Give the backbone structure.
Amino acid sequence: MAEKEGNSKYINMLGLSVLLVCYAGAIWNVVKSKRQEQRADVIRIVHWQLELGVRDGLQVLIDEFEAYKAEQGQAVEVVQIPIPERAYNQYVTTQLIGGTAPDMIQIGMFPEEYLGRYFYPLSNEIQKPNPFMNRRLEILSAKSELTPVEAEELEMVKILAGKPWMDSFTDGLRGQFKENFQEYFGVGFSTFTVRMYYNKDLFKKVLGHDNPPSKFEELINVSNAIKDYGKENGIDLLPIASSKYQADVFRNRYLAELTSDLSKEYDMDYSGSTVGEEKLYAMLRGDLTPWNEQYKASIELVQDLADFFPRGFMSMGREDSGFAFVQGKAGMITSGSWDALSYLKKIEDQPEAGRFEVGIFDLPSISKDHPKYGQFADGRNSEATSGTGFGFGITRFTRNFDLCVEFLQFSTTPDMNTKVNEIAGWIPVVKGAVPGELLKKFQPNFVGYQGSVNFEVMSGGKVRLLEQQVYWPLISGDSDFETYAKTLWEKLPAEASTDYKRIYQGSMESVPNRQARRSAYLANVVLGDQDPEKRTAREIQLQRSMQPLLKFLVTQKRMDRMMKVTLEQVPDDEMIQKFNRDFFKALDREMSQ
Amino acid sequence: MTRPVLCGLLFVSMLSMFPLRAEKPEILQRAWQEYQFLSMDAAKNLFKQAQKLDTSAEYLLEAKVGLAMVSQFREQKSDLNVAEALYREVLAENPPEELRDLVYSFIADLHISRGENEEALEMLDKLIESNLNSVVGQDALIRKTLLTMGEYGAPQSVKVADETETILAGLAIEPTAERPYLIPLLESLLGDIYFWSGDFTKALAHYEIFTTLGNAKTTSYGSQAGQLYQIAKLYEVEMEDPKKAGQFYKRLITEYPNNGTSYFALEKAVRLGAMSRKEVEKLRLSGVTSEILDELFETSKEGKN
């Protein structure tokens, strides 16, 4: 009995000590965080990139920056806070609304409106030269011997040193420009493209060589060869590892190759692309129906490819298909440059017999002489706008704005950009930065066209949902094209009317906030410092804030005009006339709600 | 000897008549910053605090304008009557001319919000007449055009655009690419009105000014690139002027290469004879290999034949 009591006493003591340790730990954390916050030289940076190498790459930048600042006699601490993708939006929202947000936040995964409310516009900063280019210039010029890479970098740095910071990015930092605010809110470190990864060893076994396919028909031939090889040798071998995610990559890419000319044709205001409502006008004119030959061809092409996907690919996740590829069970897989390092590491982790050499190639284009699709082939999809990603903005809650800018400037010289991307396995975006050997194949290719045509009236709207409902059964072989087309066409008017109304009325939703910003910038011109240069800068800021406001203010006028022009062109065809009747009946109902 | 001393004394006494502008109080600066971030409650508190400061009259007036603006432009719980009363108080204090016009501008907005278009137009006309050479007057001209133009394509829209054109002709300033004021915006709006009415000649004239006065810094990269594309298309399709079209496709690819339509523009510029092989090579566009260039220039020759 006494022994039991003794044991219980020990357990209680143990419990109490655990509790005390936890309590002390919690207090320590709070004190540490408070201390950090009180110090003016701590900046916190949050992002969602948990991919292999990214945190390490960023940490190298942080370490180098801290060392540089220490040399300057300033103790600086940069704290990296990685947050899982799923919790990112919630985390950022809570921190921003609560006024406790970190100094720098990776831009994305949260509503764009936050940028205007919680982030400093960086347009003025990025139009000034990056002072660290001069520092790099001095370092390189002082070297007695330069490697060929350094010599090339030196030439580039000489050009960039006096230029605006934004000009040192391969895309002029256009990827970080937000049209709706006409402002830059972020500075990015990397860019991303999609390619095909392939198992070189398997290619050699099956084909006798490891040359990647350069045309779509070659992709089909190679896939057939891998399929046959698997069958002949009794191996469970997939030509193309794929899930719904990858199937969509193929669909979007080839849809663009087959319909980019339609995108120019339906572009009523010569803006360079066909937006959702212009697709609807094309439907109302009878120009765009599911039976459109080019559109139909894009679906048949994905059906052709789906023959080489695993059975049940629709219920597989993106990770499952990646897993099949790294295990050597598939000849090819399509994915982005962001997966490169993870794939290589996972292949390296396989038992020796399971390891293989990976090659990269661009998704092969449809050639003009393809017997079935060649007549519609426009050429590859351009990557001219792939832009700068992995971008960070500075929140209004920071007490170290200048230090944050300095960190971003420090991180975007060619050598630093090379470093972070080399470790992350991503593609650099600063001119003069050198991509890793594997990543060279991912460099954005300017050649090609923009735009494609599908039935999506509003991004992520009701038509999209409807189309997805009928599209996947078709691709998986549970339905046929005629059923797909008929169902889509019959149900389109009702769903399109909802989307159209949302675009029409939604265009005015953000007007009050934009008017408030315009008033702020207008007052700023009149009430701010009247030094001519500073006043001009504020006038330009006013103009930039008014550009999107003006666009929204005339959206309904523009849509009304295009609709009027469209209705003058509706053909005397009962199928199209019925589509129009159904659409306007549904639209009347929508508008009266 | 006495003359320089007297001159010096005169200079000092003149300076004392026009005291140097005091630094804007920090509270007021913070208030405007909160306002720009649309944190209206915080801005309101700071403007109120600024009103209690022992500072110059102009900053106290500025704080009152700020308070009125919060009441007028806040998304929720706006109170136009409070805003109007505060604006009237500011006007009663005989503010400097540009501040007065700024207040008129916001009163015009207030009338528009209430649907009092006639009163709004009266105010906007006053601003256009008195202050067209500043962005306050130009902003008023943009709003007047929007308020009166009606639908795109309607005769009324063309009439209004013609009137706006006439007013713009009376500008006493010369906007430049370095200091464009709000003229690129007005030109773009006029271009759109004429475009939708089918008067492409007039639309092009205005759009072209947008691309010479505006640039990536003063307007934006995307809007400039988009505008050049639209001009090129108009010359090519509507005006049947391939030479001009080629020139604008060339400007698009040369000045704004990071654009989805750039390769299309490159092809067009080459096919329309606006670019030589050397000029294209100089651009060093990623992915544009010598094989692609061979094909591009070969096709362009065939097209000409």
User: Anything to note?
Assistant: Chain A touches chain B through 63 residues (CB under 8 Å).
